[in-house]
Amino acid sequence: MKHYHYIFTGSGLSALMTVYEMVISGKFKDKNILLIDENPKKTNDRTWCFWDEKGLYDTMAFAKWHSAWFKDKSFERELQLAPYLYKMIKGLDFYNLVFEVITKESNIQFVNQKVLDFKELGNHCVVKTEVESYTCNQVFNSVFNPELVKSQSKYPFLHQHFIGWFIKSKEAVFNPDCATFMDFSVKQKGNTRFMYVLPTSETEALLEYTLFSKELLPRKEYETEIQNYIQKLGITDYEIIEKEQGNIPMTCYPFWKHNSKNIINIGSAGGWTKASTGYTFKNATKKSKALVQFLSKETDLRKLHKTNKFWFYDLLLLDILDKKNEVGSTIFSSMFRKGNSTVIFKFLDEETTFWEDLQVIWKCPKGLFIQALITRIFRF
Description:
- With 380 residues, the protein is of the alpha/beta class.
- The protein has three domains: 2-65 and 91-149 and 252-303, FAD/NAD(P)-binding domain (3-Layer(bba) Sandwich); 157-249, D-Amino Acid Oxidase, subunit A, domain 2 (D-Amino Acid Oxidase, Chain A, domain 2, 2-Layer Sandwich), CATH 3.30.9.10; 309-379.
- The protein has ten helices and 17 strands.
- α1 (13-25) runs parallel beside α2 (91-102).
């Protein structure tokens, strides 16, 4: 069996970001690294959006917006995002960037195989694929195991699930300088449902029908809602350029408790997704940097995780949406109706002071969160 210092089981966003950070740090040239994934990462299989100040992945961004609409059935508000930009990155552009960098490194290999199992045996680990087995010092696993969360009831488990259409219309109906961040004016049907609209020209945009809920929908229902929204925009003639779909886990389940000295769960498998919003790209950027810095000083992977106040904030929101999924639009609308959008985005990025936290929290429906807090205390 071939032996490596590090093996990544799965090569999604978090794994690729971590390897990329390893390369640019220059501290891991003496470590043999293997990435294993059944997906060769040759197609544009997803789109990531996030807000950030100028600089982060600017050259790779497919589109950027300085402002964004927030809408509900009773009001709409154009959010001025400065000092942030709202950015879109296409999956294939990110894959190409990372693989262009790592293929130049002789100590890094990628194999297109399906991982079947991995385990720790004393001071080393074994990774088994459908083709062969490998040994390594440490495993970084990003293959999400939903059964870990489904088999317990202490922490709620919701999905951010969506289908998106990139369309090109004959009518010039979009404003390429302004995105629609969340449009809750669509029928909620007992859930938290909204539309994203991410225009790249006056005639082209990504429209994404999204839910935060426990259950997924039949594909036809997502697409019918997108068609209805397109009609509401006044578009009568358009073509679908590309489609995408996704399902992002939303949970505060403590995945880190399954880490061992030589095996760590990363990405969605490690709770790297922002539990309250499903945003992944920015969180993965921060977490991968922290992991690489940790590896340059420590070897026991159990020591990496630290729980912060934002984990608890997210847990309270998920507790509410778990019991009353239909109130999601009310909660987000209460924040964005009159709140400082810059502080809200900073809060969602987990970068606020406690005083700034309160500025956001005070805008939310207090009764819902007080009840959730009392209930949660008795669940710990």
